[in-house]
Amino acid sequence: MKKIELHWQIFIAIILAIAYGLLLADHVKYVSWTGDLFMKSLKMVVAPLILTSIASGVANIGSGGNLGKLGLKTILYYLLTSVLAISTGLFMVNFIQPGTGADLGLIQEVEGLSIATKSFGSTLINIIPENIFDALVNNQMLSIIFFALLMGFFITRLNNQHKKFLLTGVNSGFELMMKITALIIKFTPFGVFGIVAVTVAEQSGDSAALIGISKRLALYMITVLSALIIHASLVLPLILKFFGKINPSRHLKSMSIPLLTAFSTSSSSATLPLTMQAIENKAGVSNKVTSFVLPLGATINMDGTALYECIAAMFIAQAYGIELSIVEQIIVVATSLLASIGAAGIPMAGLVMISVVLTAVGLPLEGIGLILAVDRILDMFRTAVNVWSDSCGAILIAKSEDEILNYSKNQAVP
After folding, report:
1. What pLDDT digit, counting tens, does each position of 50-92 carry?
2. What is the rounded CA–CA span in Å between residue 60 and residue 220?
3. What are phi and psi of 411, to 5 degrees?
4. CATH topology of domain 6-400
5. At 121, is the pLDDT very low, low, confident or very high (cuts 50, 70, 90)?
6. Distances in Å between the alpha carbon of 174 and those of 40, 61, 177?
7. Coil, strand, or helix at residue 403?
8. How far apart, in whole angstroms, are the C-alpha atoms of residue 27 and residue 33?
9. Of 224, 244, 226, 233, which Cα lies nearest the Cα of 77?
């Protein structure tokens, strides 16, 4: 009997989980543990995987000149796609005008807003960890990435004896983490089942309330989803096609497992191990590019989150009857970009970071209450777009660096 491919197993798990959550909402406690165990397992490997993968990737690049070239391409791609995503969101929210005439009766307190009130300058300063072990324990991804970059770079500056020893060490550490990750990946369908079943069960009790949400809130959802679809199915594929001569549909096929996982977990960081495996084993991108581009992208490249923050801020402004000038809208775009860079790859992080954008243009933070009812649903879509953009960047940069390996008929690059 032919074994069902993992992405189909995940898809079936999502369908069964939806049915379970709707029909057996009072019994999700019996399956929720599978989702908790899966998320804990993924989070367990994220910090050591990022540390070893980036250090290994940077050290294997070789010279500082090569690192600078690859790093520049990566940053330029992430900035370009984020700006394009935000611009798409800004156009759609001005075209549809979802917040005009919205009901403000949904205002409520959002916990954790103080986390996002730090300035971008403060965020940059805090990238440098006082204690790297503390950063690893608390999953401070920017600090871990900064230290891994330093570690990998200065391994290349050591004498040959020490360089060979440490290079073998970080490469072995990365290989070890990928082996552990491969084991966790086998249990993805069970984890996804538990996560989705719980989410559906929590929402099913509020179905009457959701049906009664105003037309404007529904338009807000349509605006966000439309902008995400345009960016994911038009903008990014065009970049792949015309700048990299890459087949977007084949690349999408190779990314099916990470995208379904990102959609169901709403966590780009938790999906990172699966993304790395798919990009290397199915898209044929070399480890040198994968281990540098993807961990960096999972932290600072948040196309879907940046797009959402822009639309959410504009929606709240429209709902309160506040008309933003062109200059203020440009501030929204710039702040959305910066806030998305600092957004952690965890569920609902974008909701907290939206307060940065609202504060920048003087909008009331209470307006966040308007979007709480549908944010969890939109979070799933924007996380998938985040991961899709990261993967497009990895294969595009790999093509430019001639780092596409292990060709097969299913790969995006012929």
Report:
1. 788 778 877 876 555 555 677 788 888 988 999 999 999 999 9
2. 46
3. -80, 155
4. Proton glutamate symport protein (1.10.3860)
5. low
6. 19, 15, 5
7. coil
8. 12
9. 244
